[in-house]
């Protein structure tokens, strides 16, 4: 059974192994090619012109937030399958994370979708646009972690509650207090 720390460390290492150039075994640190489903993986990373895209993962409680960003052309933006292409890229990244996590830790990674894909497209110029997509997943095996945003439980000890309930006026005064107004 993996601890929460081991799961988070494995996810972060799997995401870190998708650095630019890792898709080609010539530039990989261990000689193994890794395809994360990004557009920049097409062609040679040194010789060919590059498409700027990438992804980021962050853990919030028992949820994994996957963010994807890429440059797109106006032609791609106006294509009817634009949202499907972005969802497909996110799915490819999730497959990569699961596969890489398994090779790093030896355990499987369970990710369940929570909510819809949030896609934002922005214009940088007449030719270039920028797309950002975010999707949230519930991480399996992280049952001991409290979800962020849940109401907190009362955890004050009884002695603190008694002390706070006394108030200022009924609290015992120190012996060295000599106030004439009392």
Short description:
27% of the residues lie in helices and 24% in strands. The chain is an alpha+beta fold and 182 residues long.
Description:
By secondary structure, the protein is of the alpha+beta class. It has one domain (4-147). 27% of the residues lie in helices and 24% in strands. The protein contains 4 helices and 4 strands. The chain has helices spanning 4-16, 74-77, 82-105, 158-166, and strands at 53-60, 63-73, 111-123, 128-139. It has a 4-stranded antiparallel beta sheet. β1 and β2 form a beta hairpin. α1 (4-16) packs across α3. The longest helix is centred in the middle third of the chain and has 24 residues, at 82-105. The radius of gyration is 26 Å and the shape is elongated. The termini are far apart.
Write the layout of secondary structure elements.
Blueprint (H helix, E strand, L loop, with lengths): L3 H13 L36 E8 L2 E11 H4 L4 H24 L5 E13 L4 E12 L18 H9 L16
Antiparallel strand pairs: 1-2, 2-4, 3-4
Helix pairs in contact: 1-3
